[in-house]
Write a structure and sequence with these properties.
CATH superfamily of the largest domain: ATPase, nucleotide binding domain
Order of helices and strands: EEEHEEHEEHEHEEEHEHEH
Helix content: 25-40%
Distance between the termini: 14 Å
Oligomer: single chain
CATH topology of the largest domain: Nucleotidyltransferase, domain 5
Shape: globular
Number of helices: 7
Strand content: 25-35%
Structural class: alpha/beta
Number of strands: 13
Radius of gyration: 19 Å
């Protein structure tokens, strides 16, 4: 999935902003396709300090966040680490798959079309948005498609101002669900990530290591089951017909969601009994203690890029 973004010099450490907390993690390679936690920590962040949002200020207390991050890396034993990858809160970013009507005639025309599509999809002018995008497999009718994620420059600047004051270099900054979904980058076939947030969830359906469906659903906690069921029925109708594929991996992350119920819904919608993936299934070894896969999945997904 990250083939177009890969850089051999990505760090083996990452920061992940979650819902009410922030985590730091450094990884080591444990063997082919397996990674272990070298050091890590998670601490709470009050909403008076950080309030994730796509179109309004996130960092409400600059010096408060400075203090939180300084304490975080100290607790994690990573105070000397200066190069990081970062996952931003889901609420601070937007993601989508952009489908073009046809192939543009030139590179400049392609850039113009993508800018226009992103403006309409994300709700902002291209001058206001920092957009990360890369080409993925074409649609079934051969139309070109791109995966894109966006964050407002004003929001990104707030985070980067804090990083700069700490003396950090943040080379790769992506939405939280992309870090989480990177655990599927070594998994063939069809995989589904469901990542909850305070106002709903983000779902990424992966086929052969790249996204084919992205859904950001705004709903109440009590509505998540119905929305997941609708998503799975859409998958069955569009992607699992004619023996083309079937869902083989399911990863559910975040608070306020009944994992056993999601597994049951998956069986009802697809006819398959799916085990919800654990860190061990995905090649991630977490030592016993207070560390949580919920908190580390996103930053560790990016940190694994630096481990080769």
């Amino acid at each position: 999935m990250f083939g177009a973004l890969l850089n051999p010099n990505y760090p083996k450490a990452a920061i992940g902003f979650g819902s009410g907390n922030v985590s730091a993690v450094s990884l080591s390679r444990q063997g082919r396709g397996r990674f272990g936690v070298r050091s890590a920590a998670t601490i709470a962040v009050g909403e008076e300090i950080l309030s994730p949002s796509f179109d309004s200020p996130n960092v409400l207390d600059h010096f408060g966040l400075l203090a939180v991050l300084d304490r975080l890396v100290t607790d994690a034993g990573l105070a000397s680490q200066k190069k990081w990858s970062v996952t931003l809160p889901s609420a601070s970013t937007r993601t989508s798959i952009i489908t073009l009507d046809d192939a543009p005639a030139s590179r400049s025309e392609l850039e113009d079309v993508l800018d226009w599509k992103c403006e309409n999809t994300f709700g902002g002018s291209s001058s206001e948005l920092s957009v990360t995008r890369f080409k993925i497999s074409p649609a079934s009718d051969s139309r070109p498609r791109y995966f894109a994620s966006a964050v407002q420059y004003t929001v990104l600047d707030e985070y980067e101002a804090v990083f700069e004051e700490l003396g950090w270099q943040a080379g790769l900054i992506l939405p939280r669900p992309l870090g989480e979904s990177n655990w599927f980058s070594r998994v063939p076939g069809d995989s589904l990530l469901i990542s909850t947030q305070e106002n709903g969830f983000t779902a990424l359906l992966m086929r052969d290591k790249e996204p084919v469906v992205v859904r950001s659903v705004t709903c109440q906690r009590s509505e998540i089951d119905d929305e997941v069921y609708r998503l799975l029925i859409y998958y069955q109708d569009r992607f699992a017909t004619g023996g083309e594929g079937h869902l083989s991996k399911l990863l559910v992350l975040g608070a306020g969601i009944d994992r056993e119920r999601i597994s049951e819904i998956t069986r009802e919608a697809t006819g398959n009994v799916l085990h919800i993936a654990t860190p061990e299934d995905l090649g991630f070894e977490i030592p016993a203690g207070n560390l949580s896969f919920e908190d580390l999945a996103a930053p560790a997904g990016l940190a694994s890029l630096g481990c080769g």
